[in-house]
Amino acid sequence: MPYDAEILVIGCGNILFKDDGFGPTVIKRLEEYSKEHSLPENSMLIDAGTGGPHFIFSLPQECWKKLIIVDIVQFGAEPGTIRTFSVEELPEGSYENVHSWPVSQPLHDLSKQCEIVVVGCQPETISAPDVELGLTESVENAIPKAINVILKEIGV
Predict the structure, then answer these.
(1) What secondary structure does DSSP assign to 50-86, as a single string?
(2) Rounded to whole angstroms, how far apart are CA atoms 42 and 19?
(3) What does the pLDDT look like over 38-88, one tens digit per residue?
(4) Separation of alpha carbons 150 and 99, rounded Å
(5) What number of other Cβ atoms are within 10 A of residue 14's Cβ?
(6) What is the largest CA-CA distance in the chain?
(7) CA torsion angle for 34, 16, 53, 69 (degrees, to 10)?
């Protein structure tokens, strides 16, 4: 599968750990939405799961104009609150991948090549290391707002 779209929407997270599955769930709902409504041809939806850093940092990035990362972000709001972040606005120390590797510095480097927007949702519960499937009600209810934000970001 080529990743040569100009706009990538990448859902990050682990569906096994409650609200950490927000990103992949949003991508799944966007894929369902796209069956009835066309998305711009220059955009691509990717459920990166826990492999977000792989997609973001190891694929060819020459043609990317915009990267929209969909993930949970701990930013001290009410659970289910949706907020967009630029790379510079990411809460320090709270934006890490599943292995606690901070990704904000590599995102800063990548932001010199393309626009990066993080669509973050304040989680209610992250069950790791305990496996617990399904989102909390507050995060589940935030999905339509997240989708609207993403559609606006891709120009729909």
Answers:
(1) TTHHHHHHHS--TT-SEEEEEEE---SS-TT-EEEE-
(2) 29
(3) 899 889 999 988 776 666 666 655 667 898 999 999 889 999 999 999 887
(4) 26
(5) 18
(6) 39
(7) 40
Both tokens of 138, joined, read: 């507050």
Q: Which of 132, 128, 25, 116 is nearest to 64 (CA)?
A: 116
**Reported CATH class of domain 7-154:** alpha beta
The residue extents of the domains of the chain are: 7-154
Q: What's the token pair of residue 117?
A: 């927007």
| Cβ atoms within 10 Å of 30's Cβ, excluding its own | 23
The DSSP symbol for 133 reads -
Return the structure tokens found at 83.
Answer: 């907020």
Do residues 52 and 9 make contact, with C-beta atoms less than 8 angstroms apart? no
